[in-house]
């Protein structure tokens, strides 16, 4: 008799807790009781009813210890999911920050379509972009250079993209800190940096070997803007 009474007390408490949770969610999120949210709420109530009825029908085999353990486990899981959903944006930013530390050349998308790039240990901004040429995308690491008028491809990167470097005409003259160099003008089909894409980007293939290709103003100048704050560069579409 005492065992049956304890079972009903626990069952009533569980149902009351479920109802309290639903009332709290409706008060906290009024839209949950409208439109499709109403259907989800009905499903939740029905599920709770079915589980409660199942427990009643199996009350003879009811064991208090496992029941409470399972109830607490589900409560903890529900709490973790609720907190995780509530802080999903903060957790996303934390994950992006962690990925930025692990892979500094990887750009990070931020709300609004912008992307951020973290400076490397030398203070330069190096970013990995997907460069599409002849329908195929190839990952290329660029040094962001606001002093370069064009996107400048190193001969090795140009070959990776399918350009016939030996057959290009190196007619464009560039004045650099290291003197005058010549480049071959090309049109790059598409450059994509973490979802930020530009088509038909003016570029050139450098006539001499380079340690790294340059992301110059023919790309940066077509953006709505870019800025540097501490160790982070933000590119805005």
Which secondary structure elements does this structure contain, and how are they paired or packed?
Elements: H1 2-28, H2 36-57, H3 64-86, H4 88-102, E1 108-109, E2 115-118, E3 126-133, E4 136-144, E5 151-153, H5 155-160, E6 172-176, E7 179-193, E8 196-206, E9 213-215, H6 217-220, E10 225-229, E11 232-236
Parallel strand pairs: 4-9, 5-8
Antiparallel strand pairs: 1-2, 2-11, 3-4, 3-7, 6-7, 7-8, 10-11
Report on the structure:
Helix 1 (2-28) packs antiparallel against helix 2. This protein has two domains: 2-86, no CATH class; 101-236, Acid Proteases (Cathepsin D, subunit A, domain 1, Beta Barrel), CATH 2.40.70. It has 237 residues and is an alpha+beta fold. The chain has helices spanning 2-28, 36-57, 64-86, 88-102, 155-160, 217-220, and strands at residues 108-109, 115-118, 126-133, 136-144, 151-153, 172-176, 179-193, 196-206, 213-215, 225-229, 232-236. It is elongated. The strands form two sheets. Strands 3, 4, 5, 6, 7, 8 and 9 form a seven-stranded mixed beta sheet that branches. The longest helix has 27 residues, at 2-28.
């Amino acid at each position: 008799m005492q065992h049956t009474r304890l079972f009903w007390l626990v069952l009533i408490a569980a149902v009351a807790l479920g109802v309290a949770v639903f009332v709290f969610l409706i008060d906290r999120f009024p839209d949950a009781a409208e439109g499709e949210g109403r259907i989800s709420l009905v499903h939740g109530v029905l599920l709770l009813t079915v589980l409660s009825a199942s427990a009643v029908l199996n009350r003879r085999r009811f064991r208090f210890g496992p029941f409470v353990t399972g109830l607490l486990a589900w409560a903890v899981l529900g709490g973790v999911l609720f907190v995780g959903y509530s802080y999903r944006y903060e957790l996303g930013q934390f994950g992006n920050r962690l990925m930025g530390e692990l892979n500094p050349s990887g750009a990070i998308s931020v709300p609004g379509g912008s992307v951020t790039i973290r400076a490397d240990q030398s203070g330069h901004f190096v970013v990995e972009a997907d460069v599409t040429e002849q329908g195929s995308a190839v990952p290329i690491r660029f040094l962001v250079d606001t002093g370069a008028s064009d996107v400048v491809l190193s001969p090795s990167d140009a070959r990776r993209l399918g350009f016939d470097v030996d057959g290009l005409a190196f007619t464009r003259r560039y004045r650099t800190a290291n003197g005058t160099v010549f480049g071959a003008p090309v049109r790059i089909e598409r450059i994509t940096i973490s979802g930020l894409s530009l088509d038909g980007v003016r570029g050139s293939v450098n006539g001499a070997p380079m340690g790294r290709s340059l992301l110059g103003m023919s790309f940066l100048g077509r953006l709505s803007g870019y800025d540097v704050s501490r160790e982070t560069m933000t590119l805005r579409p």
